[in-house]
Amino acid sequence: MEITKSNNGGSNPSAGEEFKDMIKGVTKFLMMVIFLGTIMLWIMMPTLTYRTKWLPHMRIKFGTSTYFGATGTTLFMYMFPMMVVACLGCVYLHFKNRKSSDHIDRETKGGVWSKLRKPMLVKGPLGIVSVTEITFLAMFVALLLWCFITYLRNSFATITPKSAAAHDESLWQAKLESAALRLGLIGNICLAFLFLPVARGSSLLPAMGLTSESSIKYHIWLGHMVMALFTVHGLCYIIYWASMHEISQMIMWDTKGVSNLAGEIALVAGLMMWATTYPKIRRRFFEVFFYTHYLYIIFMLFFVLHVGITFSFIALPGFYIFLVDRFLRFLQSRENVRLLSARILPSDTMELTFSKNSKLVYSSTSIMFVNIPSISKLQWHPFTITSSSKLEPEKLSVVIKKEGKWSTKLHHRLSSSDQIDRLAVSVEGPYGPASTDFLRHEALVMVCGGSGITPFISVIRYYILPDRPQQQPDLFIDFNDHPNLLSASPCVFMATSRAAMLGTRRIRHKNRSCNATNLHFGERPNLKKLLLDVEGSSVGVLVCGPKKMRPRQKVAEYVPMVWLRIFIFESYQFQLVIAYTYSVFSCVVEFA
């Protein structure tokens, strides 16, 4: 993959920019080394070398220290590296060069990285996942299998009929108890990473090129792994106690060793959270899903009481980063924001416009969490920001569709004009990509369904900025004929009409020819033909809509077929929206 950079005047980067690039490179290298060292520690942990050589050496070196002690050894080995990586991530983001709109990096030839970002799996329980995601998932599963097999091999080697008889056990009972313990140890590895994807304000996600909304699926995957391993861990111990006629062990609370009752309480709390993640329950009874997830406090508290404070440090680095992030977000959300206007649009759609500091700059497709205490003090709902920080530096807007209880109550309050001025609103965010990288493509293809238009409104508005030189958008709008299309999707109408109007004005002003808007009624667009007909060596494909939206899956299937050019696929999906108006909107933006 070759990346060419267009500079105004061909000037070389200044010494300050070179210094920032050097700091970024060194910081990223240190982050990678520390992270790989932590992974190596996880790999070596089930081996005899770790137990007989590494761990005793670390305990001798740090166990007698005044500052570390026995607990500090585990803290230094597992918690400290992740804290350092998080701090280095802050440094990296601070020195990250945010290129201006007249310095555009464009991908002109395909490479390994562009191929790894293409969709590999389209249908299935994992949804749409790229080659990179499948690779890392396979590596993580391989790590779990390696640890489990190594644990069992080393443990079973010490279990003999004689050793089992010494504890009044049969051979299978001794092996069952050993396997149950090792399942819990494997679950700790998943738990160590469980909270990292939901630490929205941490430096780790943007430093790795991830966004908070795109990382939700990693939290879901890890959550299923954690609960599956811990559930089997608990069931194996219950079977073991029942076979040993020691079922009373279930209510034992050992203050020095492992507390069985605390582990069972943590498991029950986890099972309640796990049950509400079932798609039908989450969509129909979102409030049950939302409030049940606060049981993570009970889950983590009794997990620490179950295994002890020393051993819990192995699985707590991600949770600690999540707590710091949650505290900072709590401080941000304490203050109410100024609501400039609240409009009720057609088809039960609402637009809220807030006042913001002109220095607050966010990128396209960013989201913001909104809380209205008069409706619910605990519920925070994410909405895509439809405004542009460059077009409206002192305003920020979101569009909300009346579909659930919370939005229905909000619609009722906004309908009462006497309550709008007294409506207190708190916000959290915005969250989004660290920089807008859409400009690196020569063309963009945006496909969405229903409410999925909202992330693309800010993208379209960004491309029609009057200060963006030498880039004129061609907008091709294709949607199916629907009697209530314009009323059901007012955002589509407003965004496309405004883009067409402003784009046409700019084109006429500069005497340049461009097809501003083409409308096609009667059928859905031929997505495969549309992708093949897009000109350009680098094409970005953005898709937003429900998980089961057919065009969303079709685009993901077609992108890997077009291998002669760079097709970067990015999928956005609303995890918390209950229903959608199913109108298909596709947009191609080409740059002259």
From TrEMBL:
This is Ferredoxin-NADP reductase (FNR) nucleotide-binding domain. It comes from Arabidopsis thaliana x Arabidopsis arenosa. Residues 332-437 form the FAD-binding FR-type domain. It is found in: Membrane. The keyword Oxidoreductase applies. Its main location: membrane. GO terms for molecular function: ferric-chelate reductase activity. GO terms for cellular component: plasma membrane. It is a multi-pass membrane protein. Pfam families: FAD_binding_8 (PF08022), Ferric_reduct (PF01794), NAD_binding_6 (PF08030). The chain crosses the membrane at residues 29-48, 75-95, 126-152, 179-199, 220-241, 261-278, 285-305, 443-464, 484-503. Keywords: Membrane, Oxidoreductase, Transmembrane, Transmembrane helix. PROSITE patterns: FAD_FR. InterPro entries: FAD-bd_8, FAD-bd_FR_type, Fe3_Rdtase_TM_dom, Fe_red_NAD-bd_6, RBOH/FRE.
